[in-house]
Specification:
137 residues; alpha/beta; Rossmann fold; Flavoprotein-like_sf; Flavodoxin
């Protein structure tokens, strides 16, 4: 099974989370400046909510994806206020004919003083367990 990991991170939170996914899967995590050029069975896509929406650069990355090269996307995200970026990401991906797995991982992210320190070690451990539980190998 071929796997790719892409993420967008303004604060470093999503990079930390992508590194956990990388450690479990053995696949290098890359930011969204690296296009998906080879076919992948599963794309782990890490996004965060900024001011109630996903960043425009993430939207551009999603628009650049070729549905014939990406079979399935598993989302992981963090946000201080919204429950998840999943609905926004899913709508965009499905609009390009890309299947989005119903399994997703989300945890609190920090914003100013709100949820300070998140994602924390417990959040990252929960992400590790989530990815291990997918049984993708």
């Amino acid at each position: 099974m071929s796997i790719a990991i892409r993420y967008f991170s303004k604060t470093g939170h999503m990079k930390r989370m992508a590194d956990v996914v990388s450690a479990v899967t053995g696949v290098e995590a890359k930011d969204i400046t690296y296009p998906i050029s080879e076919p992948v069975d599963t794309l782990f896509l890490g996004s965060a909510v900024y001011y109630a929406g996903i960043d425009e650069r993430m939207k551009e990355f999603i628009r650049s994806l070729d549905g014939s090269k990406v079979k399935n996307v598993i989302c992981f995200s963090s946000a201080a206020l919204l429950p998840s970026s999943y609905p926004q990401v899913r709508r965009l991906l499905e609009g390009h004919g890309i299947r989005v797995d119903e399994r997703e991982f989300h945890c609190r992210g920090s914003f100013s003083l709100l949820h300070r320190g998140h994602p924390n070690d417990e959040d990252l451990m929960n992400l590790k367990e989530f990815v291990e539980g997918l049984n993708l190998q």
